[in-house]
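Quick one: structure for this chain?
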Amino acid sequence: MTDQYVQTVEVKTSAKMKACFIGGLLCLMSSLAFIIVAVLKNYWFFVGFGVLFVFGFILVQIFESAPSQFIYGLSQKRIVFSKRNNAHNAKRIVSVPFDKVKDFGKFCDLVAAEDITACENAGVVGVYAMTFLNDPGKIQRVLFSPDDYMLALLNENLKEEKGE
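Got it. Here's what it folds into:
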């Protein structure tokens, strides 16, 4: 069919993350008022500036680290799962060679702590689970939501790898 295929799944930003961002910006702006008061009145207000600035910075970083996209890259030998956050930084989550895949099918189980979730919500229809053997020899599972074309490519590549 094709040598490479990339699918991008958008993730909605939750109201909690938006509140974190707005709260962080408000803390950062309020900390500027503490600088003015510290210079004009009392130097102890620099402590308030520092506390508000650090708290605001942490809240903004929490918002920016939240996922905004999941990217699935499929080639003839492997599938790569990546995550892009709100700061537009991409990070590879896991790369799975097809010869290490043990099982692939619809997800109809509970999410375990060691599962890798590469979709917005694992409880919706259309989520698939790929069980594979990772490098240390431990069996892991990745949960993702491929489109129809990627699903067909995965089934074709996995059949070729098994020799069917």
